Amino acid sequence: MGSGHFENKARREWWSLHIGAWRRSGLGIRKYCQQQRLTENTLRRWLKRLAGNETALKLEKYQTELRRERAREEREKALRKQKQRRFTVTSDVRNQASQAFWAMHVEALNGSGMGLRAYAAAMQLSPHSLRKWRDRLDVGEVTIDWRAHLHPSARPAVSTVVSSATKEPNCETSLTDEPLDR
Questions:
Q1: In the prediction, which pLDDT does 168 show?
Q2: Rounded Cα–Cα distance for residues 122 and 182 (Å)
Q3: Cα 11 from Cα 17, distance rounded (Å)
Q4: Cβ distance 40 to 29 under 8 Å?
Q5: How many whole angstroms separate alpha carbon 50 and alpha carbon 21?
């Protein structure tokens, strides 16, 4: 292209508007050109022509850094959001079963005298999951009585009949009573 091509006032104005819009968009040149249906190389040539080679390179680097910074901020925001929603106690039966399962294992771990890794290996459990559930239960984030979720056939038999051994003893005993057969 001859130098007259770049000197055309209408073209210069049109491309300078696109370059300004690209800068404000925060997009990369490739993505901006795809959205606007422009040729990437043409936008780069006009950028160099209008801003100068050095300035064009600096501008592209700056835009790239901005995109990276925004992407990093978005990832951090997503992580914060994920941590906030990390775990919630629910009335869903499947989650209750899972909570009861881990509560039972944490209780068994605490009563076993074994270390977490040794217990997890013996029970073929994930040490990471066991540690997470132990911490949740210790903090009180989850409070569940796992025994209440046992099948009735697995629960210990509890008698409703009062045993005679539990009755209060008679105030008078045979040692202090007078013999009846005399």
A1: 59
A2: 70
A3: 10
A4: yes
A5: 14
Q: Which of the 8 DSSP states describes residue 85? A: T
Give residue for tokens 């770049």. Answer: 6
Whole-number mean pLDDT of the chain?
A: 78
CA distance 182 to 167: 30
Task: Please give the backbone phi and psi of residue 21, each rounded to the nearest 5 degrees, phi first.
Answer: -65, -40
Alpha helices in the chain (DSSP H): 3-7, 9-25, 29-36, 40-51, 53-84, 93-112, 116-123, 127-139
Per-residue pLDDT reduced to its tens digit, 62-108: 888 888 888 899 988 888 877 766 555 444 545 777 788 888 888 88
The pLDDT tens digits for 6-37 are 778 888 888 888 888 888 888 888 888 999 99
How long is the chain? 182
Structure token pair of residue 144: 């569940």
